[in-house]
Design goal:
The protein is α/β, with parallel strands linked by helices and 218 residues long. It is 39% helix and 21% strand. An eight-stranded mixed beta sheet has the order 2-1-3-4-6-5-7-8.
Amino acid sequence: MISEEHKKHLRDELAGKLPNLVRLIVFTQEYECPYCAETRELIEELASLSDKIGVEVYDFVADADKARAFGIDKVPAVAIVGEKDFGVRFYGLPYGYEFGTLVEGIIAVSRGRSDISESVRERLKGVVTPVHIQVFVTLTCPYCPSVASLAYKFAVESDFVRADVVDVGEFPHIGHKYAVMGVPKTVINDKVEFIGAVSEEIFLEHILLAARRPEHVP
């Protein structure tokens, strides 16, 4: 699924950017999952390009306990795990523009640190309650990777933040639930949302707002 020319480029890129081991934990299912096989194939091809990347494959049904342990509720899914589980997940086939998001996530998790600014990093320390970011994307959206990668960076930087990137084309029922009419759309704690690409400072403001806003009580 990765061209030979792209493989060579990736080998060189990953060789210099992965200081620590990363596990790509793939959750798949034999039936009723049209892109599970392709996701597994893609992840195994990518892992073959670096000795710092390992792959584990689990069946969503047969290995239900493992899926629950990683908070996986749909497939195909990929958990990117480093020295610890930073809460970085991709749901769907990470292909097209989103292949770059996957690679960026691997690099951030391997380093255990992102390239966000020091001022944003310091302000992010003010988040002391759980924050769940969902970034809805499509594989043909050129603006989606910047937002998705930022979500991953925030998850790596904070123990209170976890980030899911979801291919809405593969999970239309979820897109309907969150009224995704355009991408990228970001939903934080099911309470705060925005559409489009934003700076890390603006993204942080939405995270802080979601972390402060109390749960809705009917």
